Amino acid sequence: QTTTRARRRRTPEVRREQIIRAAAELFAQRGFAKTTTKEIADRAGISEGTIYRYFGSKDDLLFAFLDVEALQTLDALLAHTELTDDGEIIRRVLQDRLLLWERNASLIKVVFAEALFDRRLGERLCERLLTPVTELVRSYIAQRAKQGLFCDGNHVVMARALVGLVFSFGLIW
């Protein structure tokens, strides 16, 4: 009974994080396609229905994890406008991205490998992860170019080149 009471006392934020972590662990171990919401619920110590109070689908679980790990951290790094040394900002971003890869290598490899064969998952990864990451980088480049600190040019191409470079280095690393 104590365990049941403790579960009920968890805040929605804690419960949401618990579900996301359980899902990420299972996706990394079993693969995205092979993991069921029942298994996620069992790992999180909740009922399967509880997952759907927080997430609309298994896809939403994956992207909730990626949003926190990949998008919010990058946005925070690029928003440090008090840093005027672009070399330092870029160093911090690259270090952060490599740590992201290191912490989540199994999950990233599994999900991106599955995305090569699952067109819908690949499209969602582009839509929910790669496009927003590229946009954050493009916006940063455009802002710095407007200030005269970066050369002007096609900021989308520059951003795609940087994101692709970091992504491919992460895969190889």
What percentage of amino acids are in beta strands? under 5%
Number of helices: 8
- The beta-strand count equals 0
Mean pLDDT across residues: 88
Stretches where pLDDT falls below 50 for ≥5 residues? none
| Class by SSE composition | mainly alpha
Rounded Rg: 19 Å
Shape: elongated
What does this structure look like?
The protein starts with a helix and ends with a helix. Helices cover 82% and strands 0% of the residues. The chain contains 8 helices and no strands. The protein has helices at residues 2-9, 12-30, 37-44, 48-54, 58-78, 86-117, 119-146, 155-172. Helix 2 (12-30) crosses helix 3 (37-44) and helix 5 runs parallel beside helix 7 (119-146). The mean pLDDT is 88. It has 173 residues and is an all-alpha fold.
Notable features of this structure?
mainly alpha, 8 helices, 0% strand
Topology:
Blueprint: H1 2-9, H2 12-30, H3 37-44, H4 48-54, H5 58-78, H6 86-117, H7 119-146, H8 155-172
Quick take:
Helices cover 82% and strands 0% of the residues. With 173 residues, the chain is mostly helical.
